[in-house]
Structure formats: structure tokens, C-alpha cells
Design a protein that fits this description.
The chain has no helices and 10 strands. The protein has strands at about 20, 25-30, 30-35, 35, 40-45, 50, 65, 70-75, 85-90, 95-105. A hairpin with a 2-residue loop joins strand 7 and strand 8.
Length: about 110
């Protein structure tokens, strides 16, 4: 069954972003567009988009996964370099916010 969606607010156009499906919610992170890298995260839930509050680094072409109430963002491209970090965010679904819990240096060199 398809339901109509009313989009009063929604993410900006983007490419090279990443996304994941978790607990019937669709999360969208980062990417880029003609203005540069995008440093935000959105959730699509209950037929609407909401911006997830948090402090994000603009990244594109990154990997993302969810495990034990945490969002893991792997590598990606920053403005002028490839990221060699794993960023780990605590996710508060009820309040639609994240907090950076840790940043881990990957144990190998990216060139």
C-alpha cells in the first residue's frame, strides 16, 4: 500500500551520500552538491523528513552502519583528502539528535 507523503521540509539535493535503514527509519548522511560538501543527517520516519541535530563533518563517498544504538561513519572524502577516521555517534531517536562519542584512526594508511 502506498501512502501520500507531504514534504514540508526535506534534505537538499545531493550526490555521493550514504544512507541506511534502521528500525523502519531511513537515515541519510552527508554527500555533496554544487555548493560543496554537506554536513548534515536526516531521518525519514512516519512519512516525513526531519533533520537530526548534531555536529557533523562534511563527507561524501563514505560508508555508514548502525550497531547497538550507535551510528558508525567510515572514511569518506573530505574537502581535499580521503578521511582515515571512523566517526561513532550516539543516536537519540526520541529527540532526533546525535552526539559524537568517539573518533577512531583506522589502523592502515589510505592513499
Amino acid at each position: 500500500v502506498l501512502y501520500p507523503i507531504s514534504l514540508n521540509k526535506y534534505p537538499s539535493e545531493r550526490n555521493s551520500h550514504c544512507s541506511l535503514l534502521y528500525d523502519n527509519d531511513f537515515l541519510l548522511f552527508g554527500g555533496g552538491n554544487s555548493s560543496g560538501l554537506i554536513d548534515d543527517m536526516w531521518v525519514f520516519s512516519n512519512n516525513e523528513f526531519n533533520k537530526i541535530k548534531g555536529n557533523y563533518t562534511g563527507l561524501e563517498m563514505t560508508g555508514i552502519t548502525f550497531f547497538k544504538s550507535k551510528i558508525y561513519v567510515f572514511g569518506g572524502r573530505e574537502i581535499e583528502k580521503i578521511s582515515d577516521k571512523i566517526r561513532i555517534y550516539n543516536y537519540d531517536k526520541e529527540n532526533l539528535c546525535t552526539s559524537l562519542s568517539d573518533t577512531i584512526q583506522m589502523p592502515f594508511s589510505i592513499s
